[in-house]
Amino acid sequence: xxxxxxxxxxxxxxxxxxxxxxxxxxxxxxxxxxxxxxxxxxxxxxxxxxxxxxxxxxxxxxxxxxxxxxxxxxxxxxxxxxxxxxxxxxxxxxxxxxxxxxxxxxxxxxxxxxxxxxxxxxxxxxxxxxxxxxxxxxxxxxxxxxxxxxxxxxxxxxxxxxxxxxxxxxxxxxxxxxxxxxxxxxxxxxxxxxxxxxxxxxxxxxxxxxxxxxxxxxxxxxxxxxxxxxxxxxxxxxxxxxxxxxxxxxxxxxxxxxxxxxxxxxxxxxxxxxxxxxxxxxxxxxxxxxxxxxxxxxxxxxxxxxxxxxxxxxxxxxxxxxxxxxxxxxxxxxxxxxxxxxxxxxxxxxxxxxxxxxxxxxxxxxxxxxxxxxxxxxxxxxxxxxxxxxxxxxxxxxxxxxxxxxxxxxxxxxxxxxxx
Length: 420
Fold this sequence. Notes:
1 helix, mainly beta, 57% strand
């Protein structure tokens, strides 16, 4: 089953841009992330295991980055968005692989990089290319960076031919989604591969305000064109249960600001983040985050953070009861909780153990510096009503995450970063 990013739920900020500047140091990074979510009301849960491996080699002028990551996903979800969704919860699992490569050119005050990646899963294929650059202005107190990425993606979908939008069938886990290398092959009468293109651009300005404080401003824009529905999800609209239907074009815009202040006497730093997001589907959101980094001794770094996020619903999103009793809002209808009004709070911490080579004795006989990272986040999630709750005769009955659940989701990450 195709895994969609949990926008505003797992990572509020999301991936602002696929491009990145190639690293200027020789590094080796290994990490594994475990995301676990449990939903109340019998709607199942979600488990994601994400191992990742990155290696970077840098010379005086050129650098090379190679990476590999995977997502092993399992859980249970409602296949039909309706008031009695509990009765249709089904189990699913999927495995995604992605490989990436990046080449960078570095000067005294500037750097430029190009990158590409290929992601493959049973029902989704992704080919990404992009470039990024950055320059330090005279005085090296101001850095300006720009990144651009284009995705050539394909999504496996049910072959609905010329069926009306309220008659379209949804994909099932047994439908054939045939691939030829990284290209999908249609199976006439059963499945077709639909194109999805994504253009992403981000600009960032980082300014040193004082020797111990800097400010970073970012602007992000994205245009998505193509098939963006979940091909598996159905929505009860009146007496029908067609595959969900959303617009094929989506424009997205976000602006963010981050302030970092270091306190030498405390050997600590304060981080303040704010972000505003809006798109052409009517989703608007705001994020606020506060973090504190504290050195303890010469080898321990502790970081604590708290984040609050809230978003509005897409203009065509309705609570399930109103889809069933009032039909769709125009031609579009969806049960995607990423398009619902949601609120969440994240509390987390990260512990880093740093070991640096001394007196020409390398760490473990190989590395100049070694960092062991242990990160943990807990999330309190709440899906809000999109329509008048007093008019919803079905009540909440499992459509929304209950706010009285002590823990809705958590993220654990173990990582190793080595400079050599």
